[in-house]
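Aim 2, interim progress. The first record below pairs a target sequence with its structure tokens.
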Amino acid sequence: MLLRIAAALAVICFVSAGARAAEPSPFAVDVPPWFQASLLDFRDEVREAAARKQRVLVYFGQDGCPYCRRLFEVNFGQPDIVAATRRDYVAIALNLWGDRETTWTDGEVRSEKDLARFLRVQFTPTLLFLDDSGRVALRLNGYQPPERFRLALEYAREPRDAPFAAFLAARAVPAPPPGAGDKAARAGVRLDQPARRPTLLLFEGRGCEPCREIRAALRRPEVARPLAALELVPIDAGGTGRVVAPGGKAITERELARAFSIAFPPTLVFLDKDRREVFRVEGYVRPFHLAAALAYVADGEWQREPSFQRYLQAHADRERAAGRPVEIW
């Protein structure tokens, strides 16, 4: 064990700041010092964590990621979150674009970036909570604020029969129902027939402040063009309104949210013209990333570039070349 730690610490010494994806550093963003020094054999990490009554938490980040920085500065700036994470988890950091060799729980050897591709990591930060057998017990795609992150830590620390969405619903605080205008917008939703354009299912929650932020961002001028190329369908994730789901069955909005495994509102689920899911945004996003996500689907870029992060970098470069400001936060 001491040899493993010493070797891993030698890797950490080579951390470089500010590298782009083309020049990956061992870690993206300065991770907290209590993160585990690891040789990245996750079979060993899972076994050793289980022996200590802990679980493994895998973090994927990248340089220049404001959401990663917010995770460390805001969430891990809360003493109770740090204490709970250190007590229940062994946290290991990976670079989305990194070249370090990893051995995943399936025994396959891959570089960090190849492992990210294998695990379909599209956002940073992405957090994978592994159970005692190495399976993913919970996955957070994108940044979640402290109050939601605390619930994720609680959920993933022990075996659960209920899915995460049901765990959250049991702890939800009652809030007023959506307004009449929202109810009218949701009336007559049919998802069982092909569409003329891609669909954006906007799963919202009652009394959800981030949902209001998304609504405001959708009114910004930079999102007007890609949004016009999508069919926007608001869904009350806890609602009793009736919708026709893909497949033709009439169900409630709450049941539709369950069918799409919606945990946190707002969640944006993009469907192609045949009503098949092709992309989703689950974490907290600022207007630039929201506009890019809309364009990624509206322009069909998801079919040409399977990595949203690579598309995002190219999109930002095009915006800067055109003289338009790029405000990633």
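The second target in this work package is listed in the same format:
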Amino acid sequence: MVLRDSAGLVVDSLNYGLLVDPWASEGYHGISGAGEAGCRVAVPPAGRGGGAQNAQPVASPNRSSGRFPDGADTDSNCNDFQLQTVTNLAAAATVGSNNIKIANAVDFAPGQIIAIDTGANQEMVMVATAGTQGAATVGTATAAGATVIPVASPAGFTPGQTITIDSGANLETAVVVASTGGGRGGQAPGPSVTVAAALARAHLPGAQISGSGLTIMGGLTRAHASDAQVTGHVPTPGSANQYTRRGR
């Protein structure tokens, strides 16, 4: 979309998706990155399954692009727009819980309204505190003094992140040094989490390891399976969007 004055000069422009008209990619193209074709508003791509030649399309999450901050216009589509935040539950969540574990904690913030799950099982909640990402369970019995914890699946933790291990009297915290997804075909060790200091306690298979996640106001009214979609609030047409950028 291009707005021109009576002399035909471009006074404002907006471009969604791939570049159509150089004038419509508003802003300095050099900051858009290699292969990005100028400052355009990102459009979520359609997913493809498994990488196979005849793979069926994977349903992409319903997402929107919106200005951030709402109504801002710096004359650069590279800076003014962001995609709606989308992640997944890193662990199942039970009815009444006021904390959820998420695969990615970027761009969630206190006071934000988020949607958990989809369809008839979706519920809207408000974020009270936004913490860190990741969750897994201990894969095999781990002794006190260990610094490498085998886990049942990749955990999604980042180096330097503080995590909690186990619960009740066996609860302890640790700082992540590395988190690996394991090798393929049994030719390499399975997924594991390496921590900075020796564990103070032994932990049995199935004990939860997690980041602090998102604490919500009140408790969940429904149970949600691991991998259920979590999104930032979808704006109502004509109303302000509720996107956030953490730390910005």
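Confidence is low (pLDDT under 50) at residues 46-60. This observation will shape the mutagenesis plan for the next reporting period.
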